[in-house]
Protein: L-threonine 3-dehydrogenase
Organism: Streptosporangium roseum
Amino acid sequence: MKALVKEKAEPGLWLTEVPEPAVGPGEVLIRVLRTGICGTDLHIRNFDAWAQQTLRTPLIVGHEFCGEVVEVAPGVEDIAAGDLVSGEGHLVCGKCRNCMAGRRHLCRNTVGLGVNRDGAFAEYVTLPASNVWVHRVPVDPDVAAIFDPFGNAVHTALAFPMVGEDVLITGAGPIGLMAAAVATHVGARNVVITDVSPERLELARKLGVSLALNVAERSVADSLHELGMHEGFDVGLEMSGHPQALRDMIANMTHGGKIAMLGLPAEEFAVDFATIVTSMITLKGIYGREMYETWYAMSVLLEKGLDLSPVITDRFSYRDFDAAFDTAASGKTGKIILDWTA
């Protein structure tokens, strides 16, 4: 089968022929239909310091996907050939304290699809049945392919109550855009999203945010005045990983405000902890998706009319992967989809 492989410990990816995976005990074989390009995939392609420390080559990359089930191992129930499925890319041990308590998203032994084991940028992929999400309600395959990052957005956006609240989102990348769509959909009063990319801010406007703010031109404090807010933001969603974004967020939160942090900083940085303490601000780190409450929430949000179509801006055949990756790396787009049927 065809697969995108990190063949060598150097920058680049290679489209090559590899053996089709065999179904193991408790597993499901899936014919991949669509995949989404993630920031992690860009790090792997560039072979930056993180990738050099993390990867073992050769490796089939990719973890955002949807596909059609073609085979299930004996004993697997509730999944059948022909089902449209997405995959939870965090494979957990099932034996640690958190797994045994049902907190699988906190497993300290998590293995990442397309990072620590062969991934989904291929014509076929296998997954444990416990990591397969069957779409019981019709969903567009392009949207089904991005359930992994959509789950990050939903996990972050629903970390704290949103109804009637004023929300600040720093970072209008694809996950920040999806979080903005969720916040608006579930009843936030004002949703402000910040970035320095005019293209991404325009995508945010299409999603119905109250204000898309270019912080290269105006400050977060300006947004408070523009929207007639006097006490700061109730909820912050930090999606960028940039030090100044978090500092600006902390400085503009209301007393008792709550911040969920998904953006992953490249290095340590200082923040104003005196304000965090005296304003009694809550900081909560977010990683991945809650298994499988977040997945349920995603499906219901779509079923009740949440529209993610503006977030998907470009589609390519998997054969044109280099152009697709270059487009994703531009920092001007939403989600990029690779079609494995084209």
